Amino acid sequence: MEVLGYYLAVRDGKKKARFLSANLDEKVEEAFRLFEKCELCEHKCRVDRIKGQLGVCRAPPYILLSSEFLHYGEESFLVPSHTIFFMGCNFACVYCQNYTISNWLELGVKLSEEELADMIVARKKQGAKNVNFVGGEPTPYLPFILKVLRILKEREVSVPVVWNSNFYMSRKAMNLLKGVVDLYLPDFKYGNDECALRLSKVRNYFATVTRNLKEAAGDADVCIRHLVLPNHFECCTKPILEWIASNINGKNVVVNIMPQYRPEWKAQEYEEISRPLKVEEWEKAVRYAEELGLNVMD
User: What is the mean pLDDT of residues 271-291?
Assistant: First the structure.
């Protein structure tokens, strides 16, 4: 794959992971300042999460995982990927595929930063090509993730960092990720704010995600995931693909148009997404992306 050159170089051991050159002491300090009146995501709840106050995400003031394992179902250039699923989410998607994680139907496992760093080292020895921070959503845990990376830097462990996110980070959180992430793996869900509010209960979606996508494309490699929703081509898929083509289409950006939508969680309550995606709906999205000249994954 010609795109994603830097990530692939790190993956193959030809370059060092970017966090090894980052000023992680400074980033950790700033992350915990944001934590005191939390502004890690665009909700900007401004609760004192150090004291355990809960925001929209309901995440605690420590690392809480649902699971971690070598994942072979991700994009081909990622596998095997050490996926780390953090508990909780700042979205409330009515069709969430990981609803037991995002809606706190699991208890989760509490870990220290040292313990998670040990897991990352162990998985790397087992063949992991990267460490893939996901959820739920990883953003609420950013201060702890940076501390984990600082431990790995002290141990001189080079592993590519994949930031697998809904991309609703605040501008301040996005700045903390710069120079740290090797591959951004954002979900670009909606082409307008109305669908985002109705189906994920978030405001100012399009401006926030597109702002962060521009920042990401200027910082590192990007693989944009777009899950095609039934009956949402005109309102979501089309404007998303057109925005990518007009704003960040380039050699370090690839688009994965995903066909695996299924009506999970509360999707049956929303008529237009209450059925699985049809093959022809996905094919229509792929054709349009190719017509726009996007770097579409095979």
Answer: 98
Specify burial of residue 31 (Cβ count, 10 A radius: 0-12, 13-18, 19+): buried
| C-alpha to C-alpha distance for 146 and 152, rounded to whole angstroms | 10
- The pLDDT tens digits of the residues spanning 140-161 come to 999 999 999 999 999 999 999 9
Q: What is the predicted pLDDT for the residue at 271?
A: 97
Dist. CA 17–CA 181, nearest whole Å:
8
Instruction: Note the pLDDT of residue 2.
Output: 64
Residue 14's CB is within 10 A of a number of other CB atoms, namely: 10
Neighbouring residues of 167: CB distance < 8 A, sequence distance ≥ 6: 184, 186, 187, 188, 208, 209, 212, 213, 216
pLDDT digits (tens, 9 = 90+) for 45-103: 999 999 999 999 999 999 999 999 999 999 999 999 999 999 999 999 999 999 999 99
CB 183 within 8 A of CB 162: yes
pTM of the model: 0.97
**Cis bond leading into 80, ω under 30°?**
yes
- pLDDT at position 123, please? 98
Domains in the chain: boundaries: 5-223
Q: Which residues contact 277 (CB under 8 A, 6 or more apart)?
A: 228, 229, 230, 259, 260, 261, 262
Query: Which CATH number is correct for 5-223, 3.40.50.170, 2.130.10.10, 3.30.70.100, 3.20.20.70?
Result: 3.20.20.70
Alpha-carbon distance 157 to 7, whole Å? 16
According to DSSP, the residues that pair with 163 across neighbouring strands are 133, 184
* Residue 257, strand partner residues: 226
Contact 98, 71 (CB under 8 A): no
d(CA 118, CA 267): 38
